[in-house]
Amino acid sequence: MRHGKYPFVIGFLAAPVTIYVVFVIAPYAQAFYMALTNWRGLSPGKFVGLENFQRLFTNDDAFWKALQHHGILLLALPLITIIIALFLAFMLNVGGGSQKGIMTGVWGSKFYRVVFFLPQVLAVAILGVLFQAIYRPDGSGMINSLITKAGLEPIGFLIEPKIALWSIIAVLVWQAVGFYVVLFSAGMSNIPKDIYEAAMLDGATRMSMFFRVTLPLLWDTLQVAWVYLGIAAFDAFAIVQTLSVDQGGPDGSTTVIGMEIYRNAFTYSKYGYASAMGVALFFLTITFAALSLRVSRRESVEM
Amino acid sequence: MSDNDLTRRTLLRRTAAAGLLATPAMGLLSACVTGGGEDEPADQAEGEKSAENPLGVDGKAPLEIVIFNGGYGEKYATDVHEPLYKAKFPEAQIKHSATQEIATTLQPRFAGGTPPDFVNNSGTKFMDFGTLIQDGQLQDLTELFAAPSVDDPAKKVSDTLVAGTIESGTYNGKPYVLNYVFTVYGLWYSEKLFKDKGWTVPATWADFTKLLDTIKAAGITPYAYAGKNAPYYQYLAILTSAAKLGGPDVLKNIDNLADGAWKAAAVKTAATQWAEIGAKYMDKSDEGLIHTEVQLKQNQGKVAFYPSGSWLEAEQAASTPEGFNYAVTPIPAADGATLATGLFATAGEPYFVSAKGTNPRGGMEYARQMLSKAGAKGFTELNKSLTSVAGAEEGITLSPGLTSASTVLKAAGTGIFSYRFDGWYKELDTELRTATNALMFGRETADQFCERMQKKADAIKADSSITKFTR
């Protein structure tokens, strides 16, 4: 047995480590290098030091706009998604009250669970096409056909700079909620039944049961959700690319860093500069993840 | 600890060793992305020059053709142009391929030094010409244009083309690109709708706005373009107006990034006039639609005028009702215009020969065959589009839209103009799209429009990393 141990372990490790290094670590390293060049996609770029970063931070309005949008996304996406998902999960698991001493969901909760999860399995490209039809700004749009039938002016979901970003956030939330309903449901099923029973005996309403029992005992799961959604808030590229007017418009009001990277690399052929944006995004995501994990660790100790 | 015992630490050490082993692989990978391009050109085929073979093609050398499989398909290459080449050099082997994503497919091959010989660099994912030229990837086509033409050896190839064709593919004085399809731009409408309603095509700006009022009163959206993905159809209209007001030099200055080019009085007036059209005669929701959605509305009789190029009729063939009869009219000139009868028209659909390929002479000969009467006629028949070969459409029954385009083109005579900045400076193109939507949908004024475009043009001028062009 013991003789075969080394080859066995090495055999197992070599392949995944090699693949990981070649396909994950190496491209990262390459992007870091490329960010320091003015590579334009063909002949090797010249090394330009930190010029790309200097331009990025001092002279790129689109990048700063994108950063602001990530700020909004970072607050709005987790907050809205978690609130909706919590509410739905509570209704699906506890909302129906007690039957023979066991907490149950509202009537039909099994069916709703499938419905809520459905958006999660749709490919982003399909979502894009779907919401194009839903948001279409004239009378043939799904929402606007109702609005115009009611005799009101159609709403330009994606063409009014003030609401375009929120329309995009709504799609992201709609897509994400299903997954977090399932995550929170799993968390809730771990909460001991007797706590609810005790609360019921003390005459707690659903509202106070939610805030006094469910929420505190679900805190850890919530923090995981917050980190996941925060990282998702740094992406949003695919939805913006398929849905927004003029790729990140109108007037840059929905652009995100991913969109700017795409534009700089594939439209302007500024691969070096686009890599610099990629590196900036990398550090933003890492910083966010590290920060939120640090914060959440402290709070779970307080619990 | 026995020898065979695997501790956590040794395991980690070994993992690191495996990582080291993989490092050379990583070096190779970077080499293929950031390296290449500096290799010596491969052995290039060359044959004896003669009257029959003016470009000195090696008749046995294989030739690789890559076609953009978009609106024009690939049939014109496989059924018309490639047989022409094959007829001339029966021993040559033609390797044909077609793709919808030129850059994705070919960028690595150019970076790696094994490019195909002849490329139709088109579509939304085309490779940036400036970068290709800067890198020495494109063959100088001077020799091709100076060679005797296929149909009449007494005439040079350049003399068989519509004026402006070679200029449209010239970068800093050298012709690198062959633009094959000649496109006429203007306002497209349904001849039938106009006849039924008794509307006449406007000749002046005053007539134009008057007609738009009439159309509006008839319950039809007078004017539309697709803001979601095609604002450049509209900025072409704005700049056409500017060129008519101030002469074609207005566009030349914009192309050359001249100081204050965007603040010229002609540009400002044109922007003001068009902003008014946007405010009074457009449907706000069109900003959220893509070009085919707006074009469909026109086919359904809900939109009167639509700015576009002569590909429109073929693009909409499937959804155009019987008897719709597309027609085009030049964008009307404002009062006091310098160039009242001018027309925006240009050769487009770019093709190039790879300088670093194995058979650049074969590539040039292929282009010469494309520019023969037979080659051009075959293309027009298959694709219902005019080519850059003068008069090649004669003898073919043209569709209503194409007939209209060809009439307008003839009427314009020498008053043909166009711009180049959209291909030269993608940053400027992007900014202009955004600014055009802002102007036409009432978020910004003409002054802000000019201000913001000038700012972008100045920034590009100051950016040393962007290759500059002049004309």
What are the defining features of this structure?
heterodimer, A: mainly alpha, MetI-like fold, 2% strand, B: 471 residues, alpha/beta, D-Maltodextrin-Binding Protein, domain 2, nine-stranded mixed sheet, two-stranded antiparallel ribbon, 19 helices, 45% helix
Structure, explained:
The complex is a heterodimer of chains A (303) and B (471). Chain A has a single domain, classed as Orthogonal Bundle (MetI-like fold), CATH 1.10.3720.10. In chain A, strands 1-2 form a two-stranded antiparallel ribbon. Chain A is globular, with a radius of gyration of 24 Å. With 303 residues, chain A is mainly α. Chain A has 13 helices and two strands; from the N terminus they run αααββαααααααααα. Chain A starts with a helix and ends with a helix. The longest helix of chain A is centred in the first third of the chain and has 33 residues. By secondary structure, chain B is an alpha/beta fold. Chain B is built from 19 helices and eleven strands. In chain B, helix 2 links the parallel strand 1 and strand 2. In chain B, helix 9 packs across helix 11 and helix 18 runs antiparallel to helix 19. Chain B is globular, with a radius of gyration of 26 Å. Chains A and B meet through helix 1 and helix 12 of A and helix 1, helix 3, helix 4 and helix 18 of B.
